[in-house]
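@channel sequence for tomorrow's demo:
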Amino acid sequence: MVMNKKTLESLSNELFLDLFELIDAINLFHAFYGLNTRFNSLLLIYFQNYRVDFRSIFKKDFDAFYQMYLSSIINSIIYLRLSDDEDTLYQRVHFQSTDLTIDRFNNLCSLTFNSFNGHRLEQIIINYLPQLKVLQFKIDLNLGRSIDDQTNKEKVDQYVATYHDLSICVYSLPYVFDDFLPFLNNLNYHTKSIYPSEMCFSYDFVHKIEHEQSLFNEDPLSNIKLNNIEVLGLKFPIDHRFFSLIPIVENLFSLNVVIPTENYHLQMQALLDRAPHLFSLGFESWNTSAIPPYQYNSSSVRRLDLEGRDRSSYGHCFDSKECVALIRSLLDKQCRILVIEVEEPVCILALVHYMINL
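structure tokens (generated this afternoon):
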């Protein structure tokens, strides 16, 4: 059925409000605001459960959303996600430069920070979240030889002492962290389950994983289901165990791959076809005569990371011919963010000129 304007307007307000629950606020306003007064009223008056996700958003889009919409829906925002990763550097600073501090989000239920250091988190908690009762966080510490370093021990003790009134928990199941660390075969990691082998466990909080076929051969891991993966590092080949572990990839946002030979192009394209919301596609390494991104097709990819290692095991530097091939690839017109190393400055000019959305 073709959905024309007349058909769209015949749908009930209740149905639209249910539909809005599935779309983040930025895309919601881009799609519906300004169509007519009915949609404007639904967005500004009746809808009360906005989810605002500022990952991988340009600063100009951040500024536009803040100036046009954010203050109008601030009391209806239940989820807010800020990021200081490589695509959104200094987003915390941009956010704090506005007049909208965290304490003004009166109905906020979930607040997520990506790539924020501990000092920034501490400032936000002290300045804007004085009533915070539950804090869940994960710190990756690589102490190495300094595991007995008194300075490291003092830092950990100080952090715990600062938030001594909060509940500090160690979880088994349900698993509540957003990444799932593989049990590397070359390290002394082992796992043991006390549950019957026929039971399956959905790790619904896990959003990140590094997948390599050999890492998931242990029986206790064979019953794990990761249904909400957003960030995936993947080394080909994959087999039936991959889709048993990750049966759903519709939520996949970022994919970083290792391509060992030309034999896995069909597997790669099949995965892209099942990931309609994939934003970022990266190539960590490839052992092929052709150069990424090959002729893969995806309507959703907006970020390409080609700063990987080629078959020489060195970081690949694109020459002028390879840049021309990139411009002619299926992903070039929709690419907004490109991470690449080139041999000559003139290559940058050509990429910027011909990749019209860059």
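heads up for whoever presents: The radius of gyration is 23 Å.
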